[in-house]
Amino acid sequence: MRFAGLLNRWVIFAIAVLALAAGLDNEYYFTLLNFIGIHTLLVVGLNLLLGYAGQISLGHAAFFGLGAYASGILTATYGVNPWLALLAGLAISGLAALLIGIPALKLRGYYLAMATLGFGIIVYIVLNEASHLTGGPSGLSGIPSLSLAGFPLNTARRLYLLIWLAVGVILALSANLVESRTGRALRALHDTEAAAESLGVDTARMKLKIFIWSALYASLAGSLYAHTLNFIAPASFGFMFSIKLVTMVVLGGMASIWGSLLGAGVLTVLPEVLTAFHDFEVIIFGAILMVVMIFLPRGLVRGLMDLREFRRYKREGGSLV
Amino acid sequence: MKNLVTDYWLLATGYWLLTLPILAPLLQYFISGLTNGAVYALIALGFGIIYNATTIINFAQGEMVMLGALCAISIYHLIPSLPIAFLGGVIIVSLVGLLFERLALRPVQDPAPITLIIITVGGAVFIKGVAMLIWGKEAYPLPAFSGDAPLHLGPATILPQNLWVLGLTVVLVLALEAFFRRTLVGKAMRATAYNPRAARLVGIAAGRMVQLSFGLSAALGAGAGILIAPLTLGVYDMGTMLGLKGFSAAIIGGLGSLLGGVLGGLLLGLAESFTSGLISSGYRDAVAFLLLLVVLFLRPQGLVGGRQ
Fold first, then answer.
1. Which of A30, A113, A140, B198 is the most exposed place for a label (fewest CB within 10 A)?
2. What 3-state class would DSSP assign to A143?
3. Domain B2-298 -> CATH class
4. What ranges make up the beta strands (E) of A126-263?
5. What are B131-143's pLDDT values in tens digits?
6. Structure ipTM
7. What are A34-49's pLDDT values in tens digits?
8. Which residue of B has its CA nearest to A292?
9. B129 touches chain A (CB under 8 A)
10. B195 vs chain A: nearest CA distance in angstroms?
11. Is residue A251 part of a domain?
12. How distant is the Cα of B168 from the closest Cα of chain A, in angstroms?
């Protein structure tokens, strides 16, 4: 049953992606969908960390930026093959996550939040200041498009299938991770770390693994972003973007792989649909973070489902013990 | 602000520059580092007070600094009296701190650390957004507390406002120390910090103490903001960086320790000032976070120790 249910979801996902590819004819929609896809990659990774490892990264934009700039600099300045550059970005981000994660995750509590926060701001400053390499605050342009077997992916529509293939693979990988032994260990860890440890779970190692995974996802998203836009600037990789990612996770629901898709989708589309959104963007993010965490800590979808369940339970005369 | 000081200093002490070409700029960096450091220390203490009472890290602390500065500036526009503006700003922001605790943190049913971090981050972002709606994106000046005429200190110059910042920081830190050591409420707050359950058993209203800690740290943050506003101007987005640096200072010194917060703040201010003077001003802001990472990795309990 479970397997069938899972399979159905993937089939629906694939059909939806292909149907959109066939049905849409506006380049703008593809651009928007590409951004949703890129954000989803970031949010799934962060969600693994937040929802399953119970740790928060307040500097996830930095890994996104490392991927984007590794791809951008290597391809635009040094003419390296984009796919090799993408791998280089993954290596750099993974190494950075390892270096931050080892000391920070040995300690309980807020240390990863603090370390990633510091790391995120340092990366942002370096992107701005090392202008001979990064182009400084005015950005880096002339990043070539990706190409696949000689076929250039230079329009939003062509990139769309690649990005959403990546999203599909990453979602599958993450769903698999969550259902695996590691995933169960992680959930135990989230509930009570001491109990998980006493059952032989190497918590620090698990957390480190997840943290590196989430950094790799972010780096991949960054590389795709650089080749999608053909231009990158530090402003896209600041503290506020890290907060925006946390907001997407929280809205979609922590520890929910598919919720990540929802959170990324809603918060990518909303600013496009509501022109007034921009002025209120910061307030809205803040309000979402607070309200959801206070009233619906399991995220929007599950929170509302819980609420309905609760209503029905009360209507049928049940009492809460 | 830095240019202003440098210009004055070049004009006024050109002679000393010739005789002491190395010492003079160093002294100048020292003064400006100490001033910024004092402000970081006040913000760090705000983090420490709340951490002690609740083990929450209140990421909205920086926004209290910004609110303090902007409220004082607005009050000063209505009633051009600096003492009234200062007090008014501090009182308004203390109320905001109390309100934040009441509305955003107390209703939380599952107070896991991660939930609380996310809520305070959300609160910070929210307050910043509201401030942008109220005050817009412009930066506003606040007059210095006693004029802009620079004083000469050997080969360097010092603005009266620098002295105000340093002096009032010393007064506030001593007052805090006295409050925590000598008054009944202060002792009750410390007892709650050590062991909330035991504190409740001896009749301390622990919830009240938590609320008080939010009010107190908001007041400290507001004070820091009003002190620095004449030097840097007040603008809606000033709080984020100041808050994060105050947070770094708190970690560097040892979270929850009064002495640690002060030491961390001063160290951070000096490190920043010397980096921007001697190495590169562009990397000035990176110093705080580099120090933060180094301390986290080598000595996570901070310089002064404190509880783990």
1. B198
2. coil
3. mainly alpha
4. 140-141, 146-148, 151-153, 231-232
5. 999 999 999 999 9
6. 0.85
7. 999 999 999 999 999 9
8. B119
9. yes
10. 18
11. no
12. 29
